Amino acid sequence: MTAQQAIAPPCAPPGSPGSPRDVTPTSGVIHVNSRHTSGFTVIGNHLAQHGDLSLLAIGLAVHIQSLPEGAKIGVKVLAARFPESEMRIAAALRELEAAGYLRRIRVRLRDGRVRTRTESHNRPYAMAPTPPVPYEAPRATTPPSASPPPLGNPRTEPKPGAAPAPTPLPQPRTPALHRTAALLLADLRRHAPVLTLSEADVAALAPGVAAWLERDVHPDAIRRALTTDLPAPLAHPARLLRHRITALLPPPLPAQAAPPTVIPLQNCDDCNRAFRAPEPGQCRDCRRP
User: Whole domain around residue 192: which residue ranges?
Assistant: First the structure.
């Protein structure tokens, strides 16, 4: 009986532990990384692998974060730089604003003009750590035994650590304005995504906004007062809105003076001359004896 002949090559020996054979995948992407020493931007995986943003929005956020300070990122500027249309770029910017990577705030300059400033956040500003509150020493006029008076700044959020009693909201005299006020509050998230309120918050804050409407304040003016110069991060939007609605409530408009009474012109029954009198009749000359 003849000896058995090998008709196939032997199997490849398994790789030893720790060899490249164990870590290199057989399919999918393989990263070939080189170390950057200049001209690079750090991007978090929360942006690069975001599950709700479109690819255009993610790429646009990466491009914006790589730009220097003061660079223009308007829709027309970006449309001139990339092949996408202005409509698609505007939609991508709205995605980034809703996700917290972009923030548009209105600031007032020293000369009184209002400008819109755009902030690019490398992390969503709702996730950013809360900055420490600076200590403010009491004024020299405050007695040492007395506590300093509260600094009622309507443009700052109340301290997140404390739980003060709710600020009493102004109550309107016209209940019919509650629906208009509720719609205005529910629409705030279109202008500032951090002001997304629950139905309970809208119902609780609606009487205060209705009091503004009752004092003939235009809805656009109310919206600007509630959304301008918001603190970042904003932990309690309903508490901040309650504070602003109460602290910034404008006074009622003064009553308008009654217009002066104008005596109408009459034609004299005798000479047909025009004269002023409350009722028709004779003029002064014709009434003389």
Answer: 175-247
